[in-house]
Design goal:
single chain, mainly beta, Virus Head Decoration Protein, Chain: A, 6-stranded mixed sheet, 12 strands, 34% strand, globular
Length: 176
């Protein structure tokens, strides 16, 4: 069975603490680009924003909890270091269970769906490695256990965390 190709960015599924709700906190930003819901949010000199795939900054705050327009100065971010996210892979993986624990790049972290206002970020499953390299901000936790998720096909769903080496810890508030 083929998986549906509908990337929706990072969707919080659990933060690793039994029974607790995902944590999100507000951050003030001075940049003016849009941020789509579910996009990885990076800490830049101008405050939180999304970075182009070719200029990955390892200072990742988390994932945007909502759409942020060009004139919005605040973004809520799922920023708990134990937060787990559901994300769609871009291609089939030869040995799906072998990917668990590996590090992967985001694909299309800045693009979004203009109708749903959701990120189109995917997991670059063709670039997963067991050693973290440049741009490898996600660590694969497990395959999403769902009846309609074919692990052997393209667009399979995965549960990931932002890798410990990539996650920046801050207490929220204003970032400049």
């Amino acid at each position: 069975m083929a998986n549906v190709d509908f990337p929706a960015g990072l969707r919080p599924v659990s933060n690793g603490k039994a029974g607790t709700a995902p944590r999100m906190r507000p951050y003030t930003r001075s940049s003016t680009g849009v941020i789509y819901e579910g996009a990885p949010v990076y800490l830049a000199a101008t405050g939180p924003g999304t970075a182009a795939q070719t200029t990955m900054d390892p200072a990742v705050l988390g994932a945007a909890a909502h759409y942020v327009g060009v004139n919005d100065t605040e973004v809520f971010v799922y920023d708990d270091p134990d937060q787990e996210f559901l994300i769609q892979g871009d291609s089939a993986v030869a040995t799906p269970l072998g990917v668990i624990g590996n590090y992967c790049n985001p694909l299309n972290p800045t693009t979004g769906n203009g109708t749903t206002l959701q990120s189109k970020c995917e997991l670059d499953t063709s670039e997963c490695t067991n050693a973290q390299g440049d741009g490898d901000i996600f660590q694969v936790v497990r395959l999403w256990n769902a009846e309609d998720n074919d692990q052997d096909a393209a667009n399979a769903k995965w549960v990931v965390k932002i890798s410990e080496a990539s996650h920046v810890f801050t207490s929220g508030g204003t970032i400049a």
